[in-house]
């Protein structure tokens, strides 16, 4: 049965003639408005740098790329909402107006050129209006500006190592077990040594894996890139406000996948320089990396103390 036939009443020609939106129950409209308002209102609950309770939207944006992602997400939401509501209205209308009781003698109409042209062109226009900002965003993510500094991120079972090739030092970043958490440190997200970067600088991130595939992801920066052994992946971010931003390994990598969070501390240029001077001494070149036995011990402690509910 063609849509045209469904839409056309007996003896009537076109879709528009028969539409009576007043037929849609008022309660249903109220419910739809409530759902839309709740979902979009959820953006207000979005956390900055970490998830918050009752959050329904994305995490707050700390980079221009993430700002665009949030915009694109909201833009798509309204398009999806409009299409869904339109289809719902049509379905309800058809069920009420054209059921066997209300419409015992169906129309014999099979074609309508105007409607067929419309239902071809309108979806094309919708897709084009999605494709244009989508490609713009993709280029923004992939077209890396000239970096101010480079950090090398290595995913390991089950922690991250951060290297500063220009400063020639590297260190491990391990989760803080529950019992060692200091006030203000988020559970299962805080680490002992954070990745420290300056604010308003383009940071090039080289990502690789040491053993299996991990994924380096920081929601507030809008970045997520796989850490693949034997391969160097690259992404970038430019954090435009100071703070600590958390992420998690986002590629199932084994037993302690849930216990290798990412913490990026964005600080002022001066604070960054001071940190580099001190870090250079602390993680002096040639310092042996954390011994495997130490890491094993730490991970056992982490798993034992992480009271996962
Ligand atoms: Cu993982």
Report on the architecture of this protein.
This protein has helices at 3-7, 15-18, 26-41, 64-97, 113-142, 269-282, 292-305, and strands spanning 149-156, 159-164, 169-173, 195-198, 203-209, 214-218, 223-227, 233-237, 243-248, 261-267. A hairpin with a 4-residue loop joins strand 6 and strand 7 (223-227). The relative contact order is 0.13. It has a five-stranded mixed beta sheet with strand order 3-2-1-5-8, with no helix packed on it. Strands 4-10-9 form a three-stranded mixed beta sheet. The chain has 309 residues and is of the alpha+beta class. Mean pLDDT is 85; it is low at 1-24 and 41-45. The chain has two domains: 3-142, Orthogonal Bundle (Helix Hairpins); 149-305, Sandwich (Immunoglobulin-like), CATH 2.60.40. The protein is 38% helix and 19% strand. Bound molecules: copper (II) ion (CU).
CATH superfamily of the largest domain: Cupredoxins -  blue copper proteins
| Main sheet strand line-up | 3-2-1-5-8
Note the run of SSEs as H and E.
HHHHHEEEEEEEEEEHH
Structural class comes to alpha+beta
What would CATH call the architecture of the largest domain?
Sandwich
Rg: 27 Å
The CA-CA distance between the termini, in Å, is: 52 Å
Q: Please tally the helical runs, counting DSSP H or I stretches of 4 or more residues.
A: 7
What's the total count of β strands?
Answer: 10
Main sheet summary: 5 strands, mixed
Q: What is the percent of helical residues?
A: 25-40%
Mean pLDDT: 85
Say which molecules are bound, naming each kind only once.
Answer: copper (II) ion
């Amino acid at each position: 049965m063609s849509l045209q036939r469904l839409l056309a009443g007996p003896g009537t020609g076109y879709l528009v003639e028969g539409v009576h939106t007043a037929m849609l129950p008022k309660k249903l409209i109220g419910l739809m408005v409530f759902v839309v308002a709740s979902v979009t209102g959820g953006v207000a609950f979005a956390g900055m740098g970490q998830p918050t309770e009752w959050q329904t939207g994305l995490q707050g944006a700390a980079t221009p790329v993430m700002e665009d992602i949030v915009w694109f997400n909201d833009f798509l939401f309204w398009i999806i909402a409009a299409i869904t509501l339109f289809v719902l209205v049509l379905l309800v209308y058809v069920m009420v107006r054209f059921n066997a009781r209300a419409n015992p003698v169906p129309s014999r109409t099979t074609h309508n050129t105007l409607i067929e042209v419309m239902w071809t062109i309108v979806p094309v226009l919708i897709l084009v209006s999605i494709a244009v900002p989508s490609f713009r965003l993709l280029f923004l993510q992939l077209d890396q500006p000239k970096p101010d500094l480079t950090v090398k991120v290595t995913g390991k079972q089950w922690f991250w190592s951060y290297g500063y090739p220009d400063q020639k030092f590297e260190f491990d970043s391990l989760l803080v077990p529950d019992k060692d958490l200091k006030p203000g440190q988020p559970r299962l997200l805080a680490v002992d040594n954070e990745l420290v970067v300056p604010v308003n600088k383009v940071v090039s991130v080289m990502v690789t894996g040491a053993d299996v595939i991990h994924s380096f992801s920081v929601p507030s920066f809008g970045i997520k890139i796989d850490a693949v052994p034997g391969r160097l992946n690259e992404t970038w971010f430019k954090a435009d406000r100071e703070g600590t931003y958390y992420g998690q390994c986002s590629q199932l990598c084994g037993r302690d996948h849930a216990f290798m969070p990412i913490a990026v501390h964005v600080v002022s240029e001066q604070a960054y320089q001071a940190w580099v001077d001190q870090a250079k001494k602390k993680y002096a070149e040639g310092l042996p990396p954390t011994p495997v036995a130490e890491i094993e011990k730490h991970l056992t402690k982490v798993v034992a103390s992480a009271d996962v509910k």
